[in-house]
Amino acid sequence: MAGKRQIVLLRGINIGPNNRIPMPALRELLTGAGFADVRTYVQSGNVVLTSDATPGALGKQCEELIAAEFGLTIPVVTRTRAELAAVVRRDPLGGVAEDPKRYQVSFLSAKPGPAVVRKLESLAAGDERFTAVGREFYTWHAAGVARSKLWAAIAGKGLGVTATSRNWTTVTTLLQMADE
After folding, report:
1. Which of 6, 63, 114, 133 has the least C-beta neighbours within 10 A?
2. 74-104 pLDDT, tens digit each
């Protein structure tokens, strides 16, 4: 298959006992559906593959395949390799984010409204930082996410768009995988 490298990000899988999807089964499903060079990274629903589909069509197709195979309704957010490279190049909080596991990028299905962005900006407390750029939120949680009101708001469902977050290590690893 010709096509372009794309990144498929599943929201909310393999966290606790719910929404369990084994990565080997997911790779097999996507390969069987005709996608090429299907690779996964860790257990949280990170897939790099090659497809001719537009990112939106790819996401919808993956949601349908997952529903049919696993009986789960899992939102999917997609980015092309070029879009992910732009996210990494931008790195607006790289100057303050000292620990890549506490530096999060939230990938959104669409650009959020300004009221949502203002609300999230107001929730950043202490050393936390928040930057919204297009369809991504960059957040630095110096003290971690456990008690963060900002993190709770981003991880919740009140954004008006689908969001799924990855730490900086995962983001940069997915870009490396897309380049292999």
Report:
1. 114
2. 999 999 999 999 999 999 999 999 999 999 9
